[in-house]
Specification:
Helices cover 91% and strands 0% of the residues. It has helices at 2-28, 33-66. It is elongated and about 75 Å long.
Length: 67
């Protein structure tokens, strides 16, 4: 029983250490402001393209329903 508890503590400690290491690495890899702005601009363009596509699809669907 005691051995099981110690093993569980070790497993959880290892997991926490891995999570901490991932957080440290992620923090070190933060993109700079130019990268963030570029990604945001790409997102806005993609969003606008998708809206246009959706509007066209709904327009087509309305025409089909009217027939």
């Amino acid at each position: 029983m005691e051995q099981d508890v110690l093993e569980e503590i070790n497993i959880r400690t290892e997991c926490l250490m891995e999570m901490y290491q991932h957080l440290v690495e992620a923090n070190e890899e933060k993109p700079d402001e130019a990268q963030v702005n570029q990604i945001y601009d790409q997102f806005k363009k993609k969003s606008a393209d998708m809206r246009t596509q959706l509007k066209e699809k709904f327009k087509e669907m309305r025409q089909i329903i009217k027939v």
